[in-house]
Predict the 3D structure of the following.
Amino acid sequence: MEALANNYFDEAIRKMTQASKELYRPEEDVVSFLVCKNAQSAIHNFLKGYLLKNGIETEENETIQEMYNRCKKINNRFEEVNLAGFNCQSHDLASRFCEGAEKVSRCFDIADSLDTFLREEKIIK
């Protein structure tokens, strides 16, 4: 499970990089949908990787909120990562439910917070 968890962490970091590159383009060139979907995928992969690293398999249709709640049961410090304002937490990753600069920014901030948290916990390097 350790190797599989690391694959999810690697994919999450790759998605964060893609979102970051898109987010820091000139404002008129930013494709907000790409930022949001990449950030949403990063969040999903960070949480799934953490659960797998702790020996817990996830369900295929498990939502980000459900995985987040399971992560908090393992480590209550996960509460430091605030999902408030993350409106797509129960939506399918394949959906086209990302719109608006504020939502995009919030989604990226949450992904970045998870990345920082997992690095501080020495889960990822």
About this structure: Residues 2-120 form a domain with the Four Helix Bundle (Hemerythrin (Met), subunit A) fold (CATH 1.20.120.330).
